[in-house]
Structure formats: structure tokens, C-alpha cells
Amino acid sequence: MTPHSLAFYVDVITYGTVLGAKPTDSPDQVTEILGPEFVENSFDDHSMWRDYGMAEFSWIRESPDHPWEGHHFALQVHRLPHWGGSIVSKSIRDRYGRFDRHLRFDKLERLLARRGVPLEAAPDVNAPVFTRHWQPSSQVSVMAFRAYEEWQMRRRGGGRIGDVYAIHSSVSAEEVARGRMRYGRRYA
Fold first, then answer.
1. Rounded CA gap, 68 and 60, in Å?
2. 109 CB neighbour count, 10 Å cutoff
3. Which residues, including other chains, have CB under 8 Å from residue 151's CB and lie 6 or more apart?
4. What's the rounded Cα separation, in Å, for the pair 120 and 132?
5. pLDDT tens for the chain, residues 1 to 188
6. In 3-state terms, what secondary structure has residue 136?
7. Which residue(s) pair with 75 in the sheet?
8. CB 57 within 8 A of CB 24
9. Residues near 6 by Cβ (< 8 Å), separated by ≥ 6?
10. Cβ-Cβ contacts under 8 Å for 115 (sequence gap 6 or more)
11. Quick check: 23 and 72 in contact, CB under 8 A?
């Protein structure tokens, strides 16, 4: 992994933005930052998301007469083993360079700690196959792949134990507290 692509993940987790695009930004604001190459998806008139490759931004609205409100973004890091850095939008690659097929959680956590950006355990329903970690200031969570289930076969080019699976924002303190109450610290 190049230092530049690691810097991208550290910046996202530290600041809670993707190249400055916030989870609350409008579709036009995000597209202005990430570029016009995206796929737009919607299940109904009340929700929409745009897939910019590895980065996805989601919006909601009360009705078709109301404007879109930013809801969250996700970095689908698990796509990298299959697609490589080509899945990362051009605007991100232009700024941060090449992206490797794997992002190791332990390496990411060490870099964040050096920057003074700690991650807290945030257990959730996906344990023990995944662990979730949370950065309180930026409200970003990181899911790491921790175990194969019996039915899973390791596929060529798939995720490896210890890889980051996804990065999400915004994850509130209330959501983390609910996960801790429901799933405890046993999977942290």
C-alpha cells in the first residue's frame, strides 16, 4: 500500500469527509467534488445513492417536492480485492495516487494512533465475522474482516482476515451505545 492511499483513509476517518465532501452535502455538491462518473440508484422517491466506485453517498427526502438531504457515505473497501485501484474514483486517485487491493486494519489503526485519532470498539450484529471500530470526533466507523464462517469459501482475490471491509459515516454515539448494550464488548 502506498503511503498516499493510506493517507486517504486516515484523512477520511480523521475528518469525516471524502475529499471534503460531507455526508450531509447535496448530490450536486458531492458530484462537484468527486466528479460526474457515478451510477445513481433508488428504491423509491424518498431515498437515493450514488456509487462513485469505492465511495457511495446516500440521500433521503420527505417527498419528491422536497430537496435531497445527505444521510451518509460509505467506502466499500471490500471491492478493492476484485477490482483493484481502478474502482477508486479518478478525483481520489488524482489526489492520493495508487490504491492497493488490501487495506490492513492493524496498519490503519497504528497510523491513526500516531495522528492522535483513536478508534473505540463498537460491537454490532456482524460479529464475530466482522469487528466494528468507531472514531467519536468524526463519527466514522471502520469494519474489519475477522473470521470466515463455516459456509464461506475463500475466493481468489477476496478479502483476507484483518482487511478493512468498509468505512461508514455518520455513525452517531447513540448508535454505538445501542450496539454496545445489545452486543456487549465480547466481540470488540
1. 6
2. 18
3. none
4. 9
5. 556 789 999 999 999 999 999 999 999 999 999 999 999 999 899 999 999 999 999 999 999 999 999 999 999 999 999 999 999 999 999 999 999 999 999 999 999 999 999 999 998 888 888 999 999 999 999 999 988 654 455 555 567 889 999 999 999 999 999 988 888 755 44
6. coil
7. 55, 167
8. no
9. 103, 107, 108, 111
10. 10, 14
11. yes
Is the CB of residue 80 less than 8 Å from the CB of residue 102? yes
Asked whether the beta carbons of 72 and 168 are under 8 A apart, the reply is yes
- Give the amino acid at 119: L
DSSP letters spanning 49-105: EEE-SSEEEEEE-SSTTSPPEEEEEEE-GGGHHHHGGGGS-HHHHHHH----S--BH
